[in-house]
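Section 3.1: Structural characterization of target chains.
Under the original work plan, the team committed to producing a structural model for every single-chain target entering the pipeline before any wet-lab resources were allocated. The record below documents one such target. The sequence was received from the expression subgroup and is listed exactly as submitted; it comprises 151 residues.
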Amino acid sequence: MEKIIDKKVMQATSGEKRFNPDEQRKYFGTFAERVVLSILFEDAQQANLIKNFESILAEQKDKYDTVILKISSKLSLTAQMSYMKVAQKLDITATIIDESKADSPFGIIVHTDLAENLEETNVKQLYPQYFEGKLLQTSTEKKSFWKKLFH
């Protein structure tokens, strides 16, 4: 029993057992070569992107055998739920990632279980037509009758 405890202590002091942990933290637990679509945090909050995400994700699902959606827990709850609903509708595995040590610039990562080695994964480059809209409003503030009338 003492040897098992010593082994656990040694493993804990020697750091993580993941291969390339910094890359995996950046890409929500996967490797860069598996990523087929990356969405920066700011872009993931765009209302127009959220509205059109179903067609984007469906296209990715058609291209690859297995597609997995990873969502940052730092996104607004409204955005997280919107992305989760789309994944559920398309029967795609989706996970909200909350890794305390992660310093990822991404709000969304879509990846496969194989190395695809794509040169371009940025959603803005692949789908520029969806970046005309405004940020998703997370406020539920109701406008008064007078504000609606004069705005």
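The chain has one domain: 29-150.
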